[in-house]
Amino acid sequence: MTRVTIIGGGYGGIIAAKALDDVAEVALVEQKDTFVNHAAALRATVNREWAERIFLPYDNLLTRGRVVHGTALGVRGTTTSVAGAGDIEADHLVLATGTAYPFPAKHLESSSVVAKARIERAHANLEQAGRVLIAGAGEVGIELAGEITSAFPAMEVVLLEAGPDILHNRDYRPELREAIRFQLEQRDVETITGDRLVALPPVDPGVLSPFRVTTRGGRRLEADMWFRAHGSAAATGFLGEDYDGIRHYDGTIRVDDRLRVVDHPGVWAIGDITDVRETKRADAARAHAEVVAANIRSLIEGGTAEAVYAPKPEHVVLPLGPDGGASQVLRDGVRVVVGPEETARMKGEDLFLGYIAKALGVKGGEGPVGARSAGEPVA
Question: Residue 377's pLDDT is what?
Answer without folding.
Answer: 31
